[in-house]
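We read letters as residues; the integers encode the fold. Take this protein.
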Amino acid sequence: MTIFFVSSTDPATRANHAIALQMVEQSDVNLFAENATRERLHTEFQTDPPQNLVFAMSHGSPNALWDSNEEEALAAHDAANLQGYKIFCWACHTAKELGQSFAAQGSTWWGYDCAITAPDARPPYLIVFRDILLSLKQRFPAGVDAASVAVVFATIKAECDDAEIRFEEAGASDDDDAMSIYSCCNQIWQHLCVWLAGQGHPIFHPDAPRSSIFG
């Protein structure tokens, strides 16, 4: 069971929400739009889901994941109460201080340590982004050590490479928003950052850029 947390407050998060609606699986606990609040999220934590999984799509900062009320859905001080969780955040900057704090307390954090571009939720691009993000949602729990994380990285990069071909076939290169479409697709794997539980340094794809102008 995955707690699926998706805010919808502005164009970027509304695009996330449109794609997330196509990613729902039967076992998910869906906290979408106005239900994507700190209170609702932490109420679900009290149910102690056996797999301790969270997949979030929202705004973020180096020390917080933000909810639909622009409050801290997750902050560093929450880490001690959420030991053993596996959390994926499609949100800007959360793999900086926040990811490190959760790893130090025994959770695994997948996220981004820089600003990221929102996906394009217009057809036919929506289905391509849906496929990549759904694959991440299904695969990230398997990343329990450096070797298994590397397998997820390799799979997602291959899917992003394939997505670029699909975008091209859909006419994305001639779209006014072409730069954003391709940038988002590349960022999904290039800037993905994993803090394994108990580790003091994050893991990146070996081919990822070593620095980012987006940070």
In short: Helices lie at 11-20, 38-45, 97-104, 125-139, 146-169, 178-190. The chain is about 35% helix and 20% strand. The beta strands are 2-6, 29-32, 53-57, 60-61, 64-66, 72-75, 86-90, 108-112, 192-195, 203-204.
